[in-house]
Design goal:
The complex is a heterodimer. Chain A is mainly alpha-helical. Chain A has two domains: 213 residues, Up-down Bundle (Cytochrome Bc1 Complex, Chain C), CATH 1.20.810.10; 70 residues. Chain A contains 15 helices and six strands. The termini of chain A are far apart. Chain B has two domains: 36 residues; 98 residues, 3-layer Sandwich (Rieske Iron-sulfur Protein), CATH 2.102.10.10. In chain B, 20% of the residues lie in helices and 33% in strands. Chain B is elongated. The chains are: A mainly alpha, B alpha+beta. At the A-B interface, helix 7, helix 8 and helix 11 of A face strand 2 of B.
């Protein structure tokens, strides 16, 4: 540190005792082993979230909510505002990559059983953030007010409506009325730019503090390697610098995608047009969408869609609560059932996504 | 639960309980008076809808045989179909599965929903795919060459 920097550092240190913080950061080590690569996906997700916040704020400067304004304002951003096409394209692409990297992060944590005691809260906050990420995707999808978004929102909110008892009021709450309309758009806009970011930031804060405080989880049975403890590297600065390098690569990938595969705007929503042939939701909802196609109108004594939604809801809940029913892993034992369930989920999602994509 | 060890003065359980109820009652009232307006605010007001009993849907001659079109019926979409043998039929265009808007599919001679591949025959009956119920039928009449669609009573 040169003289002036040192002076500034000392000025702050004298008042808030930065030394403690530096000491705290120096204490964290990242284990080095053959599954270490998975440690990077949390950081990548964080980076993509930061990109979303920044590009989201930029889009807010020109976006206008409302049935008569939303579609037009995005057209304006893409055609008139300098680099508007780039900002919007990055926002759309980063949203998708964010969900993808969160998924990789979640599944790697699941298969490594890193959710086991004492990291249950980290897992729970992570899962809640993942569901919020899907909600971000769903609400943001409507904001351009195009045909695909209009029907996706009709279907999505109707699905909420078939949940027994609370479904109907929940659907009205989401739609701000009986039908998807400009009022729905206003509401989704509010969720997307205020409600969700607020909740997400709190969860993210807890998640990151816990990761720093508890350190990285080590895979079961790997704590000792040939009788010796695992090799480690300091988080600060060694791991962080690797993180930053990967962030740079992701940024480049994002730029390539945004420039060469710009996001389309489509046709403006029309409440009196038929749903277009080949309509599909975003890829991360495809496996559920495809499943809904296969469930017949009536299952046992309930409507098919109610059955499907309850199964997915239940599966999601069980998944989120895995640290509380997988007690074997917390005791440091192998739990094969967890692996089989996880593999089933992965294959189910991949196969139905592909089928949904092709059909 | 009554605290028995009291640093100052003799214990007065009656007075303590009274204070406890007043304070917790006050807290409940405070939370309630904050939450109630917020929850009520979240519930969208019911918009008065103009009740529509029938709409005009254009000239009979203007519509091709074996085709369908979406007609505005108040705030709801209705699908009007002219079959291959020149019959006019109208149904609610809202798929009974998950609320998408259906279309007439010439090649299949069916009403089809693009969202989840639901199919209805030309009587509105759900014949294939996920729809749980048939489409509601509307009455179609022709007055002086003009197609009129009205609700079935």
């Amino acid at each position: 540190m040169n003289g002036r920097m040192k002076k500034a550092y000392d000025w702050v240190d004298e008042r808030v005792h930065l030394e403690d913080l530096v000491k705290f950061m120096g204490k964290k080590y990242v284990p080095v082993h053959r599954h270490s690569i998975w440690y990077y996906f949390g950081g990548v997700s964080l980076f993509l979230f930061i990109i979303q916040v920044l590009t989201g704020i930029l889009l807010l400067l020109y976006y206008k909510s409302g049935e008569e304004l939303a579609f037009e304002s995005i057209g304006y951003i893409m055609s008139k505002v300098q680099f508007g096409w780039l900002i919007r394209s990055i926002h759309s692409w980063a949203a998708n990559l964010f969900i993808l990297s969160s998924m990789v992060h979640m599944f790697s944590v699941y298969f490594e059983k890193s959710y086991r005691k004492p990291r249950e809260i980290t897992w729970l906050t992570g899962m809640l953030m993942f569901f919020l990420a899907l909600a971000f995707g769903f609400s943001g999808y409507l904001l351009p007010w195009n045909e695909l978004a209009y029907f996706a929102t009709k279907v999505g909110t109707d699905i909420a409506g078939v949940v027994p008892i609370i479904g109907k009021p929940m659907m009205q709450f989401l739609r701000s009325g009986e039908e998807v309309s400009g009022a729905t758009l206003s509401r989704f806009f509010g969720f997307h730019v205020a409600v969700f970011p607020g909740i997400f930031t709190v969860l993210l804060g807890i998640h990151l503090v816990l990761v720093q405080r508890q350190g990285m989880s080590e895979p079961i049975g790997m704590e000792l390697h040939e009788g010796k403890p695992l090799k480690t590297m300091p988080f600060f600065p060694n791991f962080l610098l690797r993180d930053l390098l990967l962030w740079l690569i992701v940024l480049n990938l994002l730029a390539i995608l945004a420039v060469f595969f710009p996001w389309e705007l489509g046709k403006k929503a029309d409440a009196f047009a038929s749903a277009p042939a080949g309509i599909k939701p975003e890829w991360y909802f495809l496996f559920m969408f495809q499943t809904l196609k296969y469930i017949p109108g009536k299952m046992l004594f309930i409507d098919g869609e109610v059955f499907g939604i309850m199964i997915f809801g239940l599966a999601g809940l069980l998944w989120m609560l895995v640290p509380f029913w997988d007690l074997k892993s917390s005791r440091g034992q192998q739990n094969r059932l967890v692996n089989y369930l996880g593999l089933f989920a992965v294959f189910y999602i991949i196969i139905l996504t592909i089928v949904g994509w092709l059909l | 639960m009554v605290e028995t060890r009291n640093a100052g003065g003799p214990e007065q359980p009656g007075k303590r309980d009274f204070l406890k109820y007043v304070l917790s009652g006050g807290l409940v009232a405070l939370v309630g008076s904050i939450l109630y307006p917020i929850l009520a605010y979240l519930k969208p007001p019911i918009q008065a809808e103009v009740a529509v009993s029938s709409v005009k849907a254009g000239k009979v001659d203007a519509m091709e045989k074996d085709s369908g079109q979406i007609v505005k019926f108040g705030s709801k979409p209705v699908i009007l179909i002219k079959t291959a043998n020149d019959e006019l039929r109208a149904f609610s265009a809202t798929c009974t599965h998950l609320d998408c808007t259906v279309q007439y599919k010439k090649e299949m001679g069916l009403i089809w929903c693009a969202c989840h591949n639901g199919k209805y025959d030309l009587n509105g009956r759900n014949v294939s795919g996920p729809p749980p119920r048939p489409l509601d039928e509307y009455r179609v009449t022709v007055q002086g060459g003009e197609i009129m669609i009205s609700k079935k009573s």
